Amino acid sequence: MAKRTTIMLQFSKFMFRKRMAMGLTQRGISKIIFGTEARCDYISRIETGKKDISLKSMDAILEALNSNIEFIE
């Protein structure tokens, strides 16, 4: 397995904390993002650092969490 990047690790932690703060289960956020609870294993792998994700998936997750990422130059 490839070494996780700092950005992905930070995103994984952020995703978990934000989801918990919203009172959502992995099944709940899966249903919001994908329209089905069946993808909760995917959510789990992201949050535990076992899965890297694409920018498209990151964008969908951020939208579901009512969040965004700001880059500082």
Automatic annotation (TrEMBL):
This is Helix-turn-helix transcriptional regulator. PROSITE patterns: HTH_CROC1. Residues 19-72 form the HTH cro/C1-type domain. SMART domains: HTH_XRE. It comes from the Bacteria.
